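Re: the request from the purification team.
They wanted to know what the chain is likely to look like in 3D before they choose a buffer screen. I agreed to run a prediction and write the result into the notebook, where they can find it.
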Amino acid sequence: MNKSRRGFIGSALGSGLATSFVSMPSVAIAAPRQARHVTTKTVNADGAIGITDASYDSLFSGGNAKRGVAALIAVGAVKINDVPVPTVNSGGECSADQLDINGGSGLWKNADGTWSYNVQVLLQGSHQSYADAVINFTNAVTLMRGISYRITLTDGVVTAIDATVKDVAFANTVSKGRNSTTFTIVGHGDGSTNKPNPSTLSFPSANVEGHPHSQDVVLYWKDAEGWHLQRAVGRNVVLSVSLDSAGDLTELVNGAAFTDSRLTLQYSQPWNRPTQPFRAMYWMGENNVRAIQWFATTGVTVGFSRGAGAKPALTAAIRKASAALDTVAVSSAGDGSDVAKGEMWVTQAYHDIFAKAVADAQAVLDDGSATNDEYEGALYLLSQAYGGQTGDRFSWLENTYFGSGDDYGTGPAFDTGYNGTGFWTFAQANLGTTV
């Protein structure tokens, strides 16, 4: 209520009293301000619904999630790993030309003025307008199944978004010092991003969670406090695989389906990822394999490992592969015309290449200093060479025996010409014709 002091007092005393007043200046009386209700909500990214989805419309001012997120970006209220998403003012000037995620390019401005982003191998966009790119980038981050992000709500309306993107690796060896922890990986990554090899990083002790050890899957990320390291949660499980009538693999953990993550696995080898281990099992004819299942957020799988079971599994695979070498005939003619009818055969080249694959696996098995993960890697490569399926991406990708690749850009390109067809797969499809 806005009244002069004279008017207010006169009203309070009543008009029937004889009073005399000194004129007073007008004073505005402010209504009491109601306290704003601020809450923080954690959202588990599910890989299906991002923050700009229409299902979130009611949480944004104006009732539109996309416009609401754009408005928050414009005032620096959307942060990824503690860094605000770049803004552009009315004059077209950028607050920043890029936003890095864990040491690699996450969102960046191109030379032609367009913008691109790379959040994960399945969550990318290129040469978009700024307005589209920042919205799509933010939505992609909130689609990274395996992370949780925070939204701040003021009186029920989203006023800030904070997400921390974590990457995944398999720690072959872990070294703990007084002030920091380091770890090494097997291999050198798949080149899917330009992020640094975690073997070159050091994690301050204050930023290490869960007591990671050698042979653990770990999560790591960089924010305003520096690099962080966290042991993924693991549990003992049994893996099983089968092929349906359509030729698709059915992958089960303890007899049930599982949820795969959408995190960057650049420095986690294929045999430790969520899907490729099942393919290796199928290639080698294994089933009901005991393993460790690793999680990021609850229920979201970031990988598997065999642990102590890797060495005996490699031993069994070498035995099986050696028997195949002895069982399958070699066609000197190269077409099976010199092999008894109905008998499996391969060419001399196929025999020699596979013999090399077996010898390589045996060398790892004989290495007294090899780790469980190195045994598992040798098993994966031997399985690929044994039962790889013709034309299947996982069968030919970086398969130095019967596939093609360039070692993820670190070596010369190669193509064996066999399109991922493993030794046993080839032999089963080729039978002798001599009567």
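For the purification team: Residues 348-366 form the longest helix (19 residues).
Please add any questions underneath this entry.
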